[in-house]
Amino acid sequence: MSTPALPEIATSDAPLPGLRVTPQTRLRLLEFHRFEAAGQTFAYLVPSAAVFALDECALALVDLLGEQGTASIEALAAAVDGKYSVQQVWDTLGDLHRARVVTEALAPAPAPKILPLTPIPLQTLVVNVTNQCNLSCEYCYEYGEDKIVDTENGQQPKFMSEETAREAVEFALRESGSNPSAHITFFGGETLMNFPVLRKTVAYARQRAADVGKSVDFSLTTNATLLKPDVIDFLADERIGVTISIDGPQEIQDKFRVFSNGQGSYALVAPKVKALLERHRSRPIGARVTLTRQTLDVLKIYRHLHDEMGFWEVGFAPVTTAPQRGHAISDAGFDHLLGQFRTLAMDYLQAALEGRHHGFSNVRETLQELHQGHAKAYPCGAGLGLMGVSTDGQVSLCHRFAGSEAHKFGTLTEGVNRDTQRAFLESHHISHKTDCATCWARPICAGGCYHEAHTRYGTTQGPNLHYCEWIRGWTHTCLEIYGALAVQRPEFLRQFDGVDHEASDRH
Ligand code: SF4
Ligand code: SF4
To answer: Ligand 2 within 6 A of 456 CB?
Structure first.
């Protein structure tokens, strides 16, 4: 079969045994999602999470099997006789079998290629250096009506102590196992409210990493209100990755991202962001936008943050909230959002084809996942290669559960309770999400964010069925972009070779 140049992505890395069949052997299709890109038809193969280009002969055979359910090889050959030779049919069926598009009619479904169930070394530790914030964003999951942990009246300290932060460093280095580097992300609350501890922790971690022959990498998320010149100098000099939580131009930012007196924060943060972007050149700076029912103008927000303010990348996430809240995005809102995402994604494709940078990070992240070709067993790295730490040193599923007893995995000093972790991974495996069993997007979605599920359904175990159409629509769009790039500019996809996504946070 003549396929376009898709060497790394076209087939499974575990070839199936060759077909030992006769012309009478009946075949059936395995699960795949069909899409078109660059004038070519592709199959996204659900069991192997691979992308496969279908030529005309393959397409004809797939269509026949789709219509008939099962068919013998000789019947398939007869149906396309005159157009394709018997040899072509056999060769094509061999390719389709190796790529897991077809199988023998009675063969059991192949086991999905999944991430291991056993714990893996920690890749990212998200350290909540404070649970306090100087803004009062109405939609915030940490302080609003959907909060999991009472950080206002609870038992935990408002700020992480220097000692606990050092323990977090030791924990991150220890739990990174054989990995040559550890990654620490500072988070909050507003992270920079505990800047003194943060600064000392970076110095301590660099020293300790050197002592044990490792490197350590840092990033943080901030609302930008406390970005003073000395803080910016520190972030730039220490090569700390920075993500700014910001929602867009003034009228959008000031809708929700307000101080406790209701005053908007744009006027304060805009010049600080400008100063940061001018000075901090050692790492690309990203913006992270929370989308709500009232703030869905993705194109306008992107243009402002990327084109006008100068962020390298802009990532968008729909607000996590219970459906009855005023800022929750409705079904119609998700449809609108998908249209906007699609428009911006096509801009990304155009830029990629022309060799220009485009900063829509949601596309880049999904392309990366598609390129990796893992059928994910879990939606993100939480509890696997990523964990969160609360201000008192409790280790949790991820930063959004930091301090929650119900989602505790251990403590910095006692380490991870492997039984708890194993039980979590077993009970949250995609194979238990029966609603997802027939969904073609499950290799990418795997049921979606645990925190979103907890907020919506009161349990981390449930799949996020309220946004399936959105996820499938978005994955389809990214597949189209992936296919177009694979045909028209395959070298673009090489940037994703070897990039590991297992410790990722999808928010
Ligand atoms: S949550 Fe929905 S979109 Fe995601 S895998 Fe499950 S069924 Fe598919
Ligand atoms: S996607 Fe959700 S569960 Fe996973 S790390 Fe992010 S917030 Fe936590």
So the answer is: no
